[in-house]
Design a protein that fits this description.
By secondary structure, the protein is α+β, with helices and mostly antiparallel strands. 48% of the residues lie in helices and 15% in strands. Residues 235-383 form the Acyl-CoA dehydrogenase/oxidase C-terminal domain.
Amino acid sequence: MRRTVFNEDHEAFRETVRAFIEAEVVPVYDDWCAAGQAPRDFYYKLAELGVFGIRVPEEFGGAGIDSHKFEAVMYEETARAGVSFGGSGVHVLLGLPYLQMLATEEQQKRYLPKFVSGEEMWALAMTEPGTGSDVAGMKTTAKLSADGTHYVLNGAKTFITGGVHADRVIVCARTSAPREDDRRFGISLFAVDTKSEGYSIGRKLDKLGLKVSDTAELAFVDVKVPVEDLLGEENKGFSYLGQNLPSERWGIAFGAYAQAKAAVRFAQAYVQERTVFGKTVASFQNTKFELAACQAEVDAAEAVADRALEALDAGELTAAEAASAKLFCTEVAHRVIDRCLQLHGGYGFMNEYPIARLYADNRVNRIYGGTSEVMKSIIAKSMGL
């Protein structure tokens, strides 16, 4: 089945990324896992490769290419190698859309050149302890000072990917109380400098998977945020979050599909080499049937992920379509990776094998960016149910 989603430019980029991963990531990846994060200077190497600026306008140092297809290639190549680029994924997938949509010309001149160069890494702080998917229930506040020059930020966030290395964080906070008829009203977005007094990083969270992704708790105690760092208009933050969720959910969907595809590759290679009862594991009918079923699921997930990618690039990906893609691809990946780990036998449970890390890394896909249950609710609502 021939794919039509990528062209020669994407395939040339794929070769570059694959070589970069082999040279810069694979030899040190075990060290990153042990450390619990990728080193900060690695992000400068990614910047030199040009991956942070692909969708940034040329005037700010980027390539000015309005497409997510190069990001899709990176999802496939990191999964293929059984590695990740640490917390840097949120820099582009979560940080950039808000800057493109909300930043004024003055803000873009301040933010984007450093975004492209890796001098300022960005993260998004939405989730709070106790709120989870209920974004409207957030308690963090940002109150305008008496002289109107800055906001005073107080509160806490958790599960913030990229939160340890971030230089700026887009923080969601309440600037007004919710209305009786609209509890989503009153949330605003701020580009907070992490060097600000009163800003602190709490625990670097010990996760089941995604070991090289720095995920943290953040706390704000009377942090002064200049009014020049308000993104968009006051009290409209919830609608801004909603507009960018489809692209975030596409990213999770595509990443999950890529992981499932990689799992089949790992399992196929393993069963062809491993012998039991004097025969290769691949020679048993059960192995053939299991891998064939997994491949069929991956083919279907690839079609769904590619369709969502084309819709995203065309500016037509709806909330329901993104939810559907995320639900389908993450559930497929869960099933496929589990079956591929089973084919590895006891070695599949060993972290030295990429299938084990893939199994742990994949589990969060059905949780973050909105749980599978939330995705079903979105899809059902679009059906008029």
